[in-house]
């Protein structure tokens, strides 16, 4: 029963979206097929050169004579969220600069290829180039941001989520009890100049949910540019010291349903989790720093989902490889994995643990409990009697999600002249 409730919650949070796009008459590329072309809405398709393509379909554009097929250009029909609709957008990228350098002095370009190879070379380097235009689109034009906050000498960390809309930057943070409730929040630029400061104290909502949330209203135009260019940082003042981190865009934030704060003695990170309501499969984008050295390449990791059920501990491990360790947060994504009924129940109760560790050094593990999406959204509905009574009766219900996967409901009911809370 609890697993069904989790899937229903996921369905309503994700929402069902559909609709029609608009055709750009002045350009040869149109994002979607207009509805009048065949009588059916085709927002889920793209148009390029007179051909239609499904969402996530890829191709090399054919520009006709004298250019022909552009094998160094990778195009994709990328799904874009636009006013509660999902529409297709054509996005293309030149991959020639990503070709590996040939090891010989006289490389040749074979027909149907982009990258040159040495004479007699059997492998095709074109196939080794990874292009993720959907991820690049989200990271470039998304309104969602995330941060992992750490500090020198501070044994604990925090993670934040940010959403920018209509000149307002909404923020929410997740942190452990050991860190204590922060007393100050500061936004900084890339040279550590203070952009804005907020004194923090618990509100009634934050007392119930244990979530730190708020909003920076009327964000100046200059600071909006700082945010979009990813030159903004944030810091929290705590009883253990000051922790800070960069505010950056990451893949998966716009579809995030579950969050996690990854902590360990040698690093910190956050998990951005999404669940498919149809299949019950989970996907996590794990952002972390500190457990491997910058500059290392092809580092094997183990991602583990673990839960306890009926006195028995169950775990599932997946092996992944990080190509290169960067100076900021590193990103590892696990493939979609279908959860069993006990795992869905554990996820809904905040008892599903996600951990990440280098295969060759498992003691440097980071782990987190997955909890509902890191936000302070309030869900509400109007209450009305099923059958109209003789008197006037109505009410409203509010539901809030807690930091550790719980929830609370507030009811306000009115019947005639009496009010119950």
How would you describe the overall organization of this protein?
The protein is built from five helices and 28 strands. It is globular and about 80 Å long. It has 421 residues and is mainly beta. The strands form seven sheets. Strands 15, 16, 17, 20, 21 and 24 form a six-stranded antiparallel beta sheet that branches. Strands 7-8-9-12 form a four-stranded antiparallel beta sheet, with no helix packed on it. A hairpin with a 2-residue loop joins β27 and β28.
Produce the secondary structure layout.
Elements: H1 2-14, E1 29-30, E2 45-48, E3 51-54, E4 58-59, E5 73-82, E6 85-94, H2 133-141, E7 144-149, E8 158-165, E9 168-175, E10 184-188, E11 194-199, H3 204-209, E12 212-216, H4 221-228, E13 233-238, E14 241-246, E15 258-264, E16 267-275, E17 281-289, E18 297-309, E19 312-324, E20 330-333, E21 337-338, H5 341-348, E22 353-358, E23 366-369, E24 371-372, E25 378-383, E26 393-401, E27 407-415, E28 418-420
Antiparallel strand pairs: 1-2, 2-3, 4-5, 5-6, 7-8, 8-9, 9-12, 10-11, 10-13, 13-14, 15-16, 15-24, 16-17, 17-20, 17-21, 18-19, 18-22, 22-23, 25-26, 26-27, 27-28
Helix pairs in contact: 1-5
Q: Please summarize the sheet with the most strands.
A: 6 strands, antiparallel
Silhouette: globular
* Poorly predicted runs of 5 or more residues: 1-41
Cα end-to-end separation: 29 Å
Mean pLDDT rating: 80
Using DSSP, what is the number of strands?
A: 28
Count of DSSP H/I helices: 5
SS class: mainly beta
Work out the strand percent: 35-45%
User: What share of the residues lie within helices?
Assistant: 10-25%
Question: Measured on Cα atoms, how large is the radius of gyration?
Answer: 25 Å
């Amino acid at each position: 029963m609890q697993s069904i409730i989790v899937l229903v919650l996921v369905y309503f949070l994700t929402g069902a979206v559909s609709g029609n796009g608009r055709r750009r008459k002045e350009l040869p590329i149109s994002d979607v097929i207009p509805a009048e072309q065949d009588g059916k809405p085709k927002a889920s398709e793209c148009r390029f050169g007179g051909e239609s393509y499904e969402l996530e379909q890829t191709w090399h554009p054919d520009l006709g004579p004298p250019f022909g097929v552009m094998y160094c250009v990778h195009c994709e029909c990328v799904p874009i969220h636009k006013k509660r609709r999902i529409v297709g957008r054509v996005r293309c990228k030149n991959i020639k600069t990503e070709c590996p350098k040939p090891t010989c002095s006289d490389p040749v370009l074979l027909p149907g290829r982009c990258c040159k190879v040495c004479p007699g070379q059997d492998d095709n380097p074109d196939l080794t180039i990874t292009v993720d235009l959907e991820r690049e689109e989200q990271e470039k034009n998304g309104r969602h941001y995330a941060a992992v906050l750490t500090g020198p000498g501070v044994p604990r960390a925090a993670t934040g989520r940010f959403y920018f809309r209509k000149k307002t930057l909404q923020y929410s943070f997740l942190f452990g009890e050991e860190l204590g409730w922060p007393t100050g929040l500061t936004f900084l630029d890339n040279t550590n100049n203070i952009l804005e400061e907020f004194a923090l104290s618990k509100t009634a909502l934050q007392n119930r949910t244990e979530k730190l949330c708020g909003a920076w209203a009327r964000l100046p135009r200059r600071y909006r540019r700082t945010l979009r260019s990813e030159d903004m940082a944030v810091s929290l003042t705590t009883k253990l010291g000051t922790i800070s981190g960069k505010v950056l865009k990451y893949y998966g934030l716009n579809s995030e349903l579950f969050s996690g704060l990854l902590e360990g003695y040698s690093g910190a990170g956050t998990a951005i989790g999404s669940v498919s309501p149809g299949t019950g499969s989970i996907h996590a984008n794990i952002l972390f720093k500190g457990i491997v050295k910058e500059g290392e390449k092809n580092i094997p990791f183990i991602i583990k989902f673990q839960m306890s059920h009926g006195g028995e501990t169950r775990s599932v491990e997946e092996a992944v490889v990080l190509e290169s360790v960067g100076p900021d947060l590193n990103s590892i994504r696990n493939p979609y994995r279908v959860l069993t009924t006990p795992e869905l129940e554990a996820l809904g109760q905040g008892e599903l643990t996600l951990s990440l560790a280098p295969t060759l050094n498992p003691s440097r593990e980071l782990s987190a409990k997955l909890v509902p999406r890191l936000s302070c959204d309030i869900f509400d509905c109007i209450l009305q009697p099923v059958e109209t009574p003789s008197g006037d009766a109505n009410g409203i219900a509010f539901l809030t999600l807690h930091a550790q996967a719980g929830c609370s409901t507030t009811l306000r009911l009115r019947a005639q002249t009496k009010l119950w809370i």
